[in-house]
Design goal:
Layout: H1 7-21, E1 34-36, H2 50-68, E2 72-74, E3 78-79, H3 84-93, H4 97-115, E4 125-126, H5 130-145, E5 149-159, E6 164-166, E7 185-194, H6 200-207, H7 214-222
Length: 223
């Protein structure tokens, strides 16, 4: 018996076996009970860090557990590559956004694979890819035609430096932008809204049938 655990050798062996046997690939028509696990797609604006490890290990554990329970677990992966973080990083480095972004995607993908995290990589998406953007546009137009998308004036958090709207979570406790440190201001802006209130009662009713912690369901009801 080896005295030391050879991480590189053993991890590579099992990762190659899972890939060869398509252990974590799921196709339509799979007879096993279906499950879907989706971890938040990362921003490819830099190398992997401990936050990535934390997030994707949790999802990985759930996929493995459900698979061992006999379920067909669909777990895709992708990169939220069409947005402010990638744009800011490209501006900072002076590289073309596509060149910079695709290099970071390759770097981050290699890191996630090195973790041994299990995903169906055939279903990988990049949100800056024209085909992905096209389907977003199709879905949006259908929502617009159905009266679920509309424009209205509303106050927003505005970063004068990034020239963009920020979510509350992107504003630090001292009122500055969490990306560039500029003081965030409030301003009225005409923007797009999705009429999620049309489904409010349906969503509330569905909570009763979910096997979720009660505190989580309470958060959802109050949201």
């Amino acid at each position: 018996m080896a005295r030391a655990y050879d991480v590189q050798k053993i991890e590579r062996k099992w990762q190659e076996l899972w890939a060869d046997e398509r252990t974590y690939e799921v196709d339509a028509g799979d007879p096993r009970p279906p499950r879907y696990v989706l971890c938040m797609y990362p921003y490819p604006s830099g190398p992997a860090h401990q936050g990535h490890v934390r997030n994707y290990v949790f999802g990985d554990l759930l996929v493995r557990y459900r698979t061992m329970q006999g379920d067909a677990v669909l777990s895709p992966f992708g990169f939220d590559s069409f947005g402010l973080p990638a744009e800011n990083a490209a501006i900072r480095t002076g590289e073309h956004p596509r060149t910079f972004t695709e290099a970071r995607i390759a770097e981050l993908k290699a890191s996630v694979k090195a973790l041994g995290a299990v995903y169906d990589w055939r279903r990988e998406i990049h949100s800056h890819d024209p085909s992905y953007i096209r389907w977003n546009q199709v879905i949006f137009l259908r929502m617009l035609d159905s009266g679920l998308a509309y424009r209205a004036m509303a106050p927003v958090n505005w970063c004068p430096s990034c020239q963009t709207v920020l979510a509350n979570e992107q504003v630090r406790a001292d009122g500055t932008c969490d990306r560039c440190g500029t003081l965030v201001v409030q301003r009225d802006l005409e923007q797009w809204f999705l009429r999620t209130t049309a489904y409010a009662q349906e969503l509330l009713d569905a909570l009763d049938g979910l096997d979720w912690p009660e505190r989580v369901k309470t958060m959802q009801r109050n949201w």
